[in-house]
Amino acid sequence: MNMNIVLIGGNGYLGRAATQKLLERSNEVTIYVLSRSGNNKLVNQQIINIPIDVGDYHAVKPILPEKIDYVIDFVGCPANDVQELNSINKLPAQTMLKIATDHQVKAMGFIGGILGPKSFTTIKSEIIQMLQKSSIPLVTVEPTLIYGNGRKDSMTKMVPLLKFLGLFSKKFKPVDVNLVADELINKLIKY
Where is the NAD-dependent epimerase/dehydratase domain (predicted)? Predict the structure, then answer.
C-alpha cells in the first residue's frame, strides 16, 4: 500500500536525511517536499518537490494529495525579532497542524530545539505545546546541535567543543543528523 508523506521544509540536511531513511524503508512511499525554495538536492521518482510558501496554508492546500499518512515540519531557524521568528517557525507549524487535521493523518512530526538563542528555544517549546493540544498524535525530537551530511556553518565549527562538553552534560552533546532522522522516523511510523 502506497504511503503519502508531506515534509514541510524538507530540503535542508535534516529533511534530506529523513527522506533518505523513508526511501530506504519502502519503495511504496511518495514524499511531497514543500519548501520556499523548492531546491532539493535529492532526485528520485518517489519525491515530489513543490516550491511554495509553507507558512500559507491557503496556498498549500490545493497542491496536497487527497490521502496523507504523515506530515513532518522541518522548518526551524533563529531570527532577529518576534515577528520574523513567528513567520519563520510558527506559521509552517500551523500549516502542518491544518494539514494533519484536514487529512486526519496518523501522526505529525516536529523538530524541537534545546540549544540556541532563548527566543528560538522558547518558540520551539511553544509550538510543541500548541501541537500537543491537537487530537492528532505528535512525535517530537529535540536535539542539541545537529551535524553531518554536509552541514557547514558557524555552529558546526563548535562540534568538537560540544562533543567534549557532551561528556559532562547531554544538553551540549551534538547529534549526527542520521541519528536524529532515524529517531524521528522510527517514532513516527509506530502510528
Answer: 5-106
